[in-house]
Design brief:
Layout: H1 7-17, E1 26-28, H2 30-36, E2 39-44, H3 54-63, H4 67-72, E3 74-77, H5 81-92, E4 97-101, H6 107-115, E5 119-122, H7 127-141, E6 144-145, H8 152-168, E7 174-178, H9 183-195, E8 200-206, H10 211-216, H11 241-248, E9 251-255, H12 257-270, H13 281-288, E10 297-302, H14 309-322, E11 326-334, H15 339-349, E12 353-360, E13 370-378, H16 382-394, E14 399-402
Parallel strand pairs: 2-10, 3-4, 3-6, 4-5, 7-8, 7-10, 8-9
Antiparallel strand pairs: 1-2, 11-13, 11-14, 12-13
Length: 406
């Protein structure tokens, strides 16, 4: 695909979707900015009705259809945010929609998409199988295929986020955008560079799926693995989006799973904002290399907020562990009356809050006249933890920090 898009396409998309979608907030994030040494603003695409930026592109595509295309209906392949965006707006516009999902798609996602009015077809063991089947159905039934990123109307729709962002914060000099297949950054870079040619555009990929970066470097594409950023876990960049990114994006960087987790945690605890892994990828890039953004006026796109509640709970707990606010200590005590009471008294005096206590005395690796106590504690920070350990050891209780708090 060689089709490209222009600022006029993005502006036309903005006119087309006006009145259908509310403007998403562009908010300052001073505490996060202080961490990175820059002025930071967040474009909250997570605030759309279905929780992601995908509504912009899907709606622009649907509104561009001719009458006969609307009557025939549309089809899309997605197991995530694109599915909900197409289903939501197709139903609202009275267009019949079919969404093809891989057979392994969790039932909750199937149910959510169906509740938005789409017919869901489960097919294939991979996303590629589902995409091929969707194309086949589109041809057989005369449906319009709505691609998640490799479509000029979709990319132009995503680009409207740039127009809004620069209108709200005109002095931005850097724009940081997550990259999966490239639809969001292609649209946003097209608009941003046309409106403000000197702006720096940085794309972000997760280290497990750096397909766009590899393609730009002329390297063989090698992707795979488990990531918290499912929304940008794309194995190949778009044929339309790749040349746009090559022409307009200043740099594409990778971020690790640890940085993605940290970004989700920081957004939740410091900004009081729920973001999915892909939605936090832009912040992860800033936190990973603050020197590259130091002193700049940086705009970050929080592209989505649809994170599984169990994953979010784990990320928050792991963040508390990382900060030393929840720890598990293993304390050796003599197997004698009053020893455990002495331990708990010392911990309380030192300002630690005991969450759980597990007392071990029957295992062979513990001397018969000794016992071990595993104590899960709430603490202030890592310095407090180290002070606790020193206090316990000075009181005659050998203490070690356990890395697993589960």
């Amino acid at each position: 695909m060689t089709t490209t898009i222009s600022l006029e396409d993005v502006r036309a998309a903005a006119v087309r979707i006006a009145g259908h979608l509310p403007l998403t907030p562009a908010v300052p994030a001073p505490r996060l900015g202080d961490m990175a040494g820059c002025r930071l603003h967040l474009k909250l695409e997570s605030q759309h009705a279905t929780g992601s930026f995908k509504e912009r592109g899907a709606l622009n595509k649907l509104l561009s259809l001719k009458d006969e295309e609307r009557k025939a209906g549309v089809i899309a392949m997605s197991a995530g945010n694109h599915a909900q965006a197409v289903a939501c707006h197709a139903t609202r516009l009275g267009i019949r929609s079919t969404i093809v999902m891989p057979s392994f798609t969790p039932f909750t996602k199937v149910e959510r998409t169906e509740s938005l009015g789409a017919k869901v077809e489960l097919h294939g063991d991979t996303l590629s199988d589902a995409a091929a089947f969707a194309r086949e159905l589109a041809t057989r039934e005369g449906l319009t295929f709505v691609h998640p990123y490799d479509d000029p109307f979709v990319a132009a729709g995503q680009g409207t986020a740039s127009l809004e962002f620069l209108d709200a914060v005109p002095d931005l000099d850097t724009l940081v955008v997550p990259i999966g297949g490239g639809g969001l950054i292609a649209g946003m870079a097209t608009a941003a560079k046309a409106v403000k040619p000197g702006i720096r555009v940085v794309g972000v990929q997760c280290s497990q799926y750096p397909a766009m970066r590899q393609a730009l470097a002329g390297q063989p594409i090698a992707c795979g693995g488990v990531t918290i950023a499912e929304g940008i876990a794309v194995k190949a960049p778009g044929g339309m989006t790749l040349p746009i990114v090559r022409a307009l994006v200043d740099e594409v960087v990778e971020v690790s799973e640890a940085r993605l987790e940290e970004a989700v945690y920081r957004l939740s605890t410091m900004q009081k904002l729920v973001a999915e892994g892909a939605g936090a990828a832009a912040l992860a890039a800033v936190l990973d290399n603050p020197e590259a953004f130091k002193g700049r006026n940086v705009g970050i796109v929080v592209s989505g907020g649809n994170i599984d509640s169990r994953i979010l709970a784990q990320v928050l707990m792991r963040g508390l562990v990382y900060e030393g606010r929840i720890v598990r200590l293993r304390i050796g005590i003599t197997d004698a009356p009053g020893a455990l009471a002495r331990v708990t008294h010392l911990l309380g005096e030192a300002g630690a809050n005991i969450v759980e206590v597990y007392h071990q005395r029957l295992f062979h690796n513990v001397p018969v006249k000794m016992a071990e106590v595993d104590v899960l504690l709430e603490t202030r920070d890592q310095t407090h933890v180290q002070a606790l350990m020193v206090r316990m050891k000075e009181a005659g209780f050998p203490t070690s920090l356990m890395t697993d708090v589960s």
